[in-house]
Here is the input.
Amino acid sequence: MTQPARRLVRSKHRVIAGVCGGIAEKLGWPANRVRVIYVLISVLSAAFPGILAYIVLWFLMPAPSE
Here is the structure.
């Protein structure tokens, strides 16, 4: 039997809002890897699109259930 797909939710283990942590949990990666990739992409794209994407995901991704 296959497991149901995990929903994309913000992580309880957060630095700012848990967006990168939630993405890392969904992908099964270490959270620091996703954070480093996010920072690199943001810096290389003049930072504004990365910050905007993070804020949008912050509001769109549901909070983790307790």
Notes: Residues 9 and 59 are 11 Å apart (CA to CA). Residues 31-44 form the longest helix (14 residues).
